[in-house]
C-alpha cells in the first residue's frame, strides 16, 4: 500500500503494521493458509511483523538486508523521514531523479545508495519506481505518510515473538550495504530458533536480490526443500 501503482483508499492508514495486516487479508481472500516469505529492505520489516502476529501462517522465512531490531530505521534513513515530515520528500528526492536519470545512478541517487551496479540501472526501472509518486497526488501523500511511519520502530516490541517462532529461516546478506550491516543478520541468526545460518554475498548492495535473482532462487529452493517432510 502507498507504493508504486497500488491504489489505496485515502482514509487507509499505511504503516509497516497495517502492511502486515493487509497481507493477512490478502491471503484470506485467496484462501491461502500459510506461505514461504522472501523479503528485502522494508519488506523484511513487514515480514518480521507478520511472523510475530501470524506465526502459524509462515512456513519459512528468507530475509535479505532489512530493518532488524534496534536498526529500524537505520540512522542514514532519518534525513528522508525528515523530508517526508515536511511534505517535500517527493519534490526534493524523487522528482530530481526522474528529471535526471544520471543523478539516480550517481552516489547521491537511488542507484548509488541501493544498487551493486548503479550504472546498469535502466531508465525504465527508474520510471517504474518513481513515476507514480509524481503523477498521482494521493500516492505522493501516502508514500510520504508511510515514510514518516517508519520513523517509529515496531520491532523491539516483538523480540519475544520472534524468539518463539520455530520455523526454518535463512539470511542472505549483501556485504556492501551501508544501511543494514551483517551484524543484524547475525542477530537474526541468534534470535530465530530455526535459523539455517547466514550467507554473506560479497560486493552486493541493498537491492542485490533484484540484480542477482539466481542467488535468491538458489537459497529459497534449498530452504524450502530442507523444511519439507521427506
Could you characterize the architecture of this molecule?
This protein has helices at 16-30, 42-53, 78-85, 89-99, 101-105, 110-114, 123-135, 137-149, 159-164, 182-191, 208-211, 213-227; strands at residues 35-41, 58-66, 169-174, 195-201. Helix content is 51%, strand content 13%. It has two domains: 33-72 and 155-230, 3-Layer(aba) Sandwich (Rossmann fold); 73-152, no CATH class. The chain is built from twelve helices and four strands; from the N terminus they run αβαβαααααααβαβαα. With 230 residues, it is α/β, with parallel strands linked by helices. α2 links the parallel β1 (35-41) and β2. Strands 1-2-3-4 form a four-stranded parallel β-sheet, with helices on both faces.
Give the key terms.
Rossmann fold, 2 domains, 4 strands
Counting structural domains, the number is: 2
- The proportion of residues forming helix, as a percent range, comes to 40-55%
Beta-strand portion reads: 5-15%
Pairing-aware structural class of the strands and helices? alpha/beta
Q: Please state how the strands of the largest beta sheet are arranged side by side.
A: 1-2-3-4
Overall 3D shape? globular
User: According to CATH, what is the topology of the largest domain?
Assistant: Rossmann fold
Task: Give the strand tally.
Answer: 4
Q: How would a textbook summarize the main sheet?
A: 4 strands, parallel
Residue-averaged pLDDT: 95
Q: What CATH architecture of the largest domain would you give?
A: 3-Layer(aba) Sandwich
Unreliable parts:
none
Give the full name of the CATH homologous superfamily of the largest domain.
Alpha/Beta hydrolase fold, catalytic domain
CATH top level class name of the largest domain = Alpha Beta
Terminal CA distance reads 38 Å
* Radius of gyration, taken over Cα atoms and rounded to an integer in Å: 18 Å
User: How many DSSP H or I helices?
Assistant: 12
List the helices and strands in order.
Answer: HEHEHHHHHHHEHEHH
Amino acid at each position: 500500500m502507498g507504493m508504486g501503482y497500488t491504489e489505496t483508499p485515502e482514509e487507509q492508514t499505511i504503516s509497516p503494521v497495517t502492511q502486515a495486516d493487509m497481507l493477512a487479508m490478502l491471503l484470506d481472500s485467496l484462501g491461502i493458509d500459510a506461505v514461504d516469505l522472501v523479503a528485502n529492505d522494508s519488506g523484511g520489516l513487514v515480514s518480521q511483523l507478520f511472523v510475530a502476529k501470524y506465526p502459524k501462517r509462515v512456513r519459512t522465512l528468507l530475509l535479505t538486508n532489512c530493518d532488524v531490531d534496534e536498526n529500524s530505521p537505520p540512522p542514514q534513513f532519518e534525513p528522508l523521514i525528515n523530508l517526508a515530515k515536511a511534505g517535500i520528500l517527493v519534490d526534493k528526492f524523487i522528482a530530481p531523479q526522474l528529471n535526471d536519470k544520471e543523478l539516480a545512478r550517481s552516489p547521491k541517487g537511488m542507484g548509488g545508495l541501493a544498487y551493486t551496479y548503479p550504472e546498469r540501472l535502466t531508465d525504465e526501472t527508474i520510471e517504474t519506481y518513481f513515476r507514480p509518486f509524481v503523477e498521482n497526488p494521493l500516492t505522493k501523500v501516502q508514500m510520504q505518510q508511510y515514510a514518516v511511519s517508519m520513523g517509529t520502530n515496531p520491532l523491539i516490541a516483538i523480540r519475544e515473538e520472534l524468539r518463539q517462532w520455530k520455523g526454518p529461516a535463512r539470511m542472505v546478506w549483501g556485504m556492501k550495504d551501508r544501511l543494514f550491516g551483517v551484524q543484524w543478520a547475525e542477530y537474526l541468526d541468534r534470535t530465530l530458533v530455526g535459523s539455517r545460518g547466514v550467507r554473506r554475498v560479497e560486493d552486493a548492495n541493498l537491492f542485490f536480490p533484484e540484480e542477482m535473482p539466481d542467488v535468491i532462487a538458489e537459497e529459497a529452493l534449498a530452504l524450502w526443500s530442507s523444511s519439507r517432510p521427506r
